[in-house]
Amino acid sequence: MPAYPHARFLLSALDLAQLAPYEGAEVALAGRSNAGKSSTLNALVGASLAKASKTPGRTRAINLFAIEPGCYLADLPGYGYARMPEAMAKRLQGLMAQYLARRPTLRGLILVMDIRHPLKASDWQLLERARRRGLPVRVLLNKRDKLSRSQAVRVLRAVEAELAGIPGAAVQLFSARTGEGVEETRKAIEGFWQKKAPVRGNRGKQTRLGDAG
Q: Cα 93 to the chain's mean position, in Å?
């Protein structure tokens, strides 16, 4: 049985206006276009909800998923894909910046990185936005199976040292392919869902997602 048997896709949003301030708690999933973000989401929910593509840069909207009553995952557009048209890249950067700064239901961020290419400049930009908002962040060093255990641990320790000065940041090894780290990440996400909103937001009338038309 899937970990979250009632998990389902809700909507795709090209701007924040399409993401009404629903009640409940939301955790965002972000990462570079080649980090394996969609495969990670599917591994976490135990079902093929997100379309995983071999072509980078396919996620070009915020895709929202209901996981449990009042608990949601937001799959953010991938970033850092060099072949994406400049205008599209700027639009997606703006969308993510607004979402991370203003989304009132956002409780935490899962940042997926390819363990062989961690902490690129675009990852640091996202980490800085999360720091400004006061969001807890869990970094998943995905594709752990591509390295030996000793190599993976060395990368883990190096990334932990780099992020030591960021409050609320944690790092772990992960493999969407083998399932390594999935249970640990689920517990972290469930912990994020229980947190209060870190900052002010546009708190208009709130609606539960399942009740939206």
A: 14
**How far, CA to CA in Å, does 69 sit from each of 25, 55, 122, 148, 211?**
10, 33, 33, 39, 11
Task: Give CA–CA dist 128/26, Å, rounded.
Answer: 19
Whole-model pTM? 0.88
Q: What is the CATH number of the domain that holds 147?
A: 3.40.50.300
Using CA atoms, how far apart are residues 28 and 15, in angstroms rounded to an integer? Answer: 15
Model confidence over 159-203: pLDDT tens digits? 999 999 999 999 999 999 999 999 999 999 999 999 987 754 443
- 207 found inside a domain: no
Cα dihedral 22, 23, 25, 30, rounded to 10, equals 10
* 32, 44, 51, 81, 176 from 48: Cα distances, Å: 20, 10, 7, 23, 12
